[in-house]
Amino acid sequence: MLVSGLMRPMPHPLQIGATAAGIAASLIVAPSPAGLFGAALACLAVAIAFADARRFRIPNALNLAGFALGLIRAAMTAPEAALPATGLALLRSAVLALAFFMLALAYRRWRGQDGLGRGDVKLAAVAGAWLDWFTIPVVIEIAALTALIAYVARQHMMRRPARQTDRLPFGLFFAPAIWLGWAIETMELLPLS
């Protein structure tokens, strides 16, 4: 008999499909070792999105894996300058995580409740490890707009009014947007033929 704490729920068929699509898309975007990094990022992004959607929590292990993989990718992308590339990825991660942390504190002070969770702050560090300075604001905007559209559409379909106290799992939108940012950056780096 299995101990109930050791049993994990089976992944949702949509999660399996999204993971397979993310892996395939990554390898199409970059049929090279870069595509393997993108495929790993896609797997993590889907896992983060589904975890946050289910429990409003982003597991630390997933954020840590995404962060570490981003740093490894930074070092391997420029092997002749691995230390500066990794340092820059760390700087972007720290700046972005600090910005999200400050935003979370400001929102808590203003509204008296949490707006961004600590998992979202850690996910911001993941974004910094993977994305360039110019891509980061685009990815945040894509995630925020997608989340807003999804929320409004859901409320409309359920015939519910929008409420200021409604919760929204931001990681559900932010994690896939990070992968999308990686894909956009990768496609721009490929030579046009």
Total helices: the number is: 7
From N to C, what is the helix and strand string?
HHHHHHH
This entry's quaternary arrangement is: single chain
Strand content: under 5%
The radius of gyration over CA amounts to 18 Å
Largest beta-sheet characterization: none
Please give a structural write-up:
The protein has 193 residues and is mainly alpha-helical. The chain has one domain (10-189). 74% of the residues lie in helices and 0% in strands. The chain contains 7 helices and no strands. The chain has helices spanning 13-29, 33-55, 60-77, 82-111, 118-130, 135-157, 171-189. α1 (13-29) runs antiparallel to α2, α2 (33-55) runs antiparallel to α7 and α6 packs across α7 (171-189). It is globular, with a radius of gyration of 18 Å. The N and C termini lie far apart (59 Å). The model is unreliable at 1-7 (pLDDT under 50).
Notable characteristics:
single chain; 193 residues; mainly alpha; 7 helices; globular; disordered N terminus
Summarize the structure.
The protein has about 190 residues and is an all-alpha fold. It has seven helices and no strands.
Describe how the helices and strands are arranged:
Elements (H helix, E strand, L loop, with lengths): L12 H17 L3 H23 L4 H18 L4 H30 L6 H13 L4 H23 L13 H19 L4
Helix pairs in contact: 1-2, 2-3, 2-7, 3-4, 3-5, 4-5, 5-7, 6-7
